[in-house]
Design a protein that fits this description.
Mean pLDDT: 89
Shape: globular
Number of strands: 26
Number of domains: 2
Strand content: over 45%
Pfam families: CrtC (PF07143), Lipocalin_9 (PF17186)
Radius of gyration: 19 Å
Protein name: AttH domain-containing protein
Order of helices and strands: EEEEEEEEEEEEEEEEEEEHEEEEEEE
InterPro entries: AttH-like_dom_sf, AttH_dom, Fungal_Dehydratase/Hydratase
CATH architecture of the largest domain: Beta Barrel
Structural class: mainly beta
CATH topology of the largest domain: AttH-like fold
Largest sheet: 13 strands, antiparallel
Organism: Dactylosporangium darangshiense
CATH class of the largest domain: Mainly Beta
Number of helices: 1
């Protein structure tokens, strides 16, 4: 492992066979044959300005076989509780994601750069973001290789959990100079077809000593698989089973738009890592996205508890898909 200045090279040779090449896989991928094959990239940022702690989401996804392309932008002011989101479909003629390097352009979004440095600019009717990102830690390849099974089909994913972030955020008619940290996620593969019992949860955790963790929990009619990838600052990995999140999910919020219910509290137990956390959503109730992949929640969150036996607190981001309302005939709650 090489060190450059205060940070760590974004690409670290762990010796684990890799299914992804982060330096080139930021580019658009040729679509698979599956009807719901998708190509996605997202940014979740925890940034501060004078007197404000903001959570920011930027997400775009291309579902070429469904002729669907989407842009999502959301901001939570965790200091005041203010929240706003923007969702829109993009016409094929207006959507450009280059086949070489990171070069995304569409109405409302420009995202360019490479695995070390990126620039993201969004413009919406109510707010704008203009930030520069610099990787300060290694790439996280999910499951250590960059691919894992999701409801019986392979998904490819790598993240940059530690990206120093500076720039400006304009909301409520005011421009803020912001700084903080972002988590970039890059994913492609077949999006699972919806069934009555399918639910998934994705959580990110920033932990002491520079560790970053991503929890994936998938519930189908037959099984619930919950596991975590932990990335250490030197590029090494830890993989561990997590007790099913459905067992510790609580305080459901019902969407007035769709009637679907989502947890707002969780108990997270990772016995082999001596990790026991409680997490809660910090954004307002108006956080369900109804377009794109179907109704789902993306929200800022916070956690407290113990990691490897040490007391911790931190901020997080949560994505949930599916209806979490208990069903009498469901195999899972």
């Amino acid at each position: 492992m090489k060190r450059t200045g205060p940070g760590i090279d974004a690409i670290v040779d762990t010796g684990i066979p890799s299914a992804v090449d982060p330096a080139t896989d930021l580019a658009a991928h040729p679509p698979g044959a599956e009807r719901t094959w998708g190509d996605a990239i997202s940014l979740t940022s925890e940034v501060t300005a004078a007197g404000h702690d903001f959570g920011v989401l930027v997400w775009t996804c291309n579902l070429p076989n469904l002729n669907k392309r989407m842009l999502t932008f959301a901001v939570t002011d965790e200091t005041t509780g203010w929240y706003k989101d923007y969702q829109t479909d993009i016409a094929e003629s207006d959507y450009a994601w280059g086949a070489s390097g990171l070069n995304i352009k569409m109405p409302g979004l420009t995202w360019t750069g490479n695995i070390q440095k990126m620039s993201v600019k969004t413009t919406t009717p109510w707010g704008c973001l203009d930030v520069h990102l610099e990787a300060t830690g290694p790439v996280m390849k999910y499951a250590g290789t960059g691919t894992y099974p999701s409801f019986g089909v392979p998904i490819w994913q790598f993240d940059l959990p530690s990206m120093r972030t500076t720039g400006s955020l304009t909301v409520q008619g005011q421009t803020h100079n912001v700084s903080g940290e972002s988590w970039m996620a890059r994913q492609w593969g077949r999006v699972p077809a919806e069934d009555p019992w399918m639910r998934w949860t994705w959580m990110t955790l920033r932990l002491p000593g520079g560790d970053n963790a991503a929890i994936w929990d998938g519930v189908s009619g037959e099984t619930e698989n919950c596991w975590v990838t932990v990335l250490h600052p030197d590029g090494s990995y830890g993989l561990a089973a997590v007790k099913p999140l459905a067992d510790g999910a609580d305080k459901l919020w019902a969407s007035p738009a769709t009637g679907k219910a989502y947890p707002t509290r969780w108990r997270i137990d990772i016995p082999s890592l001596k990790t026991h956390l409680t997490m809660h959503i910090t954004s307002t109730e108006a956080r369900e996205f109804t377009g794109g992949l179907g109704p789902h929640v993306e929200a800022t969150a916070a956690f407290t508890g113990a990691y490897e036996g040490r007391e911790v607190t931190g901020r997080s981001y949560v994505q949930m898909y599916g209806n979490w309302r208990p069903q009498p005939t469901s195999p899972h709650r």
